Amino acid sequence: MNMPNKITIENIQAAYELAKLVYNKKLKLDYAVTILVTEEGFNDNSAKDYINDYKCIIEGNVFKRALSATGIDYYLSSIKKDGTKIDFDNAIKSVRKHITYYEAIRNTNVIKLRQVVSKHNTIEQYENLIDYSLHTIAFEEQVKKSALLSEQCRNEILASSVKVEKKIAIIEIFNRNPHVVAAVLLRAKGHCEYCGKAAPFRRKKDMTPYLEVHHIIQLADGGEDTVKNAQALCPNCHREKHFGLNK
């Protein structure tokens, strides 16, 4: 990302205040960008990044356009001071997601950014955790890039590959209702409710037909954890629902 040659904490402060106004719909994005470019010395792209990334940070989402460690440090400090605990927790979560994404696609370690998170984070055992979902997305992007390489180039990389590195990941889960799962599985009577075929095998632990309970409208998208919004699927149909063309 192209940044101003000598970005100062005052520049970052101005970007933060403008980003808040844009986020709260008190200022138009284009006007805020113009101010940062003409008065603070940002280029057009970096101005947009500082404003757009604020929205991701305050909502706990991943941002893929990198900010400086100093900028993120200021954003976290200011959100902790200005916002609620939820806002700050979201901000920490967002920066962690960015670290996971950025390190995976660039095959590097953003030490300064990890130090910023460690500085603001009060839960020491979570300092080095990565976000599983973002790690998976970044890994898939790496696979796509590898597929574009020549076979010779890929083989050369494979020949120099080192031992697999182990990391500890954090994953968000929903506290699902076990009664919904039980009711849906019983309703299915051992058959996939999408393709109609019998479950592909039985569970070793209890010999019940192996089906997976899928939410028609995903919980992450606001769907309800109810029998009506769930269906029992075989593994193939379940994967198709998440990754296939006929979602």
From TrEMBL:
Coiled coil start-end: none
Matching InterPro entries: HNH (IPR002711), HNH_nuc (IPR003615)
Keywords linked to the UniProt accession: Endonuclease, Hydrolase, Nuclease
Protein's UniProt keywords contain Amino-acid biosynthesis: no
Domain HNH nuclease: start-end pairs: 179-239
Record has Hydrolase as a keyword: yes
GO molecular function annotations of the record: endonuclease activity
Protein's name in the database: HNH endonuclease signature motif containing protein
Source organism of the structure: Pseudoalteromonas distincta
